[in-house]
Fold this protein.
Amino acid sequence: MKIHALSTGSIRVKHSFLFPSPGRRRQLDLFTPGPFSDPLPIHCWAIEHEGTLRLVDTGETADAGNVPFARPDVTRDDELPAVMAAAGLNVDDVSEVVITHAHGDHIDGLVHVRGRVLINEKELEFLHTPMPRVMRRLLRQPLPPGFDPEPFVLDGGPFGAFLRSRPLSDDGRIVAVDTPGHTPGHISVICVDDADRHVMLAGDVTDTLEQLHARRSDAVAPDTKVHVATLETVLDHCAQHRTVYLPSHDPESAARFKASTPVDAEAAIDSQATAVAGPPAT
């Protein structure tokens, strides 16, 4: 098995996106004036295994516009075909794409892919409910042209600490697991690598490893309790298995991936102090 980290440009998000206020201001602050973060990567992942080239998410495109809480910076050279070529891969060889969730910076790159596209059935159902449809229109963030993924069900039973899963490869070494929170149907993909480590391609389960350790829900999760419960499950899984945790926007994900650094599930972070101080913002 060979996994490639692909970075399709960067994005700056509001400080309140990364460190939301409690209560009613959690989402309101996204639409009010405030400082933005330094640039964060927009990662997606390519997996070569058993003669198949899969993608987990497809990254962003240069056509992406700003929204009140996020400012992408993507050139044509940052898009999927170019970054795959730089990794020695050909986008035309992709036979399957697995979508962690249906936000633009994870699905817009589908315009470059001709292979099969898979999405959690629950995520697809949520995508067509009134609130996401209204927000896409208000924010001028349409779905990619021809967006028509195949839904799948997490019917494979438990996998580690995760109660619901689905094998994606015939040998069961690539598995989708249920990680609701950021969106109701969010999934992550765990690859059991050749050293028996669990490489968790985590989408937007959290923005950073720090957020996971802090057990802090993000600013857009519809249900914060569901999100925090998922973070506890991820940490339980990390305690059971050597897990390299790779969220899509963590500036440290590429380095952790290269070093194969597993999560210290016992690490404690004072989430209140961190939320007050926050990261450097510009």
Notes: The two ends are 39 Å apart (CA to CA). The chain has ten helices and twelve strands.
